[in-house]
Design brief:
By secondary structure, this protein is mostly beta strands. The chain contains five helices and 13 strands. The protein has one domain: Glutamine Phosphoribosylpyrophosphate, subunit 1, domain 1. Helices cover 15% and strands 41% of the residues.
Length: 235
């Protein structure tokens, strides 16, 4: 099991990241999503609430250049399912699952982002809570080692996740030109009980220059009620 704090502090540019797991006391389904940016356009963002989810928004609309890959809804809720992604595939998953497609089937119409030469992976997560039971899955769609002719699709499903355990997936292995895509399966990380401490640890561990926004949600597995925290660098 990796220490999430060390994973983040040792990587100046993991890009966008999703953490999903279960609190140490077993009571909460936990997720976190963060965004980072190297360009003025990427850094000019904040998270705002939208319904039961969130949306990215330009902090200074006058500086917004190309909204296509930076303005989207990272989190949406469909009944007892919470969808978390790094792009507009949130909507693809929502619409697909609303039509009784599975998480994996819904993503078959999508691939990595068209931002060559990086071809940023699309990373996604789905949390399902029903009758006191909790399962989640994560997905990554990425180019074949930077070659956009081939899309690699991986889905990881976690049934009845153990207390105190989570998985962490992010877009880039580290900073670079082009940016190297995430490799391997989602990383096993520790999930605590204290939401405030978890939020602070994540935010303080992200690179000061590159971090933009952070979303954290703890969902009570018995009741389905949730608490959310949003941290924006631009305030």
């Amino acid at each position: 099991m990796l220490q999430l704090e060390q994973e983040l502090k040792s990587n100046a540019y993991p890009g966008r990241g999703i953490v999903i797991g279960r609190s140490a006391n077993g009571k909460y389904a936990v997720t976190a999503y963060f965004i980072m940016g190297r360009s003025v356009n990427s850094r000019n963002r904040v998270f705002v609430t939208e319904g039961e989810g969130i949306r990215t928004q330009a902090f200074d609309p006058s500086k917004l250049e190309d909204p296509s890959l930076i303005i989207y809804a990272p989190v949406r809720v469909l009944g007892n399912k919470t969808i978390v992604t790094n792009g507009d595939q949130t909507d693809t998953i929502y619409e697909g699952m609303d039509k009784q497609l599975t998480f994996e089937q819904s993503l078959r119409s999508r691939e990595f982002e068209p931002d060559g030469p990086n071809y940023t992976p699309r990373i996604s997560g789905i949390m399902h809570i029903e009758n006191g039971k909790y399962n989640y899955a994560m997905s990554i769609l990425k180019s074949d080692n930077g070659n956009p002719d081939s899309c690699l699709r991986f889905t990881y499903a976690y049934e009845n996740p153990l207390p105190g355990e989570g998985r962490f997936i992010h877009t880039y292995m580290h900073d670079g030109n082009p940016l190297p895509s995430f490799q391997g399966e989602p990383k096993l990380v520790e999930i605590p009980d204290d939401m405030d401490a978890f939020t602070d640890m994540l935010w303080n561990s992200l690179n000061e220059d590159n971090k933009v926004s952070l979303f954290v949600r703890f969902i009570n597995i018995e009741t389905g009620k949730y608490e959310t925290k949003i941290v924006n660098k631009n305030v």
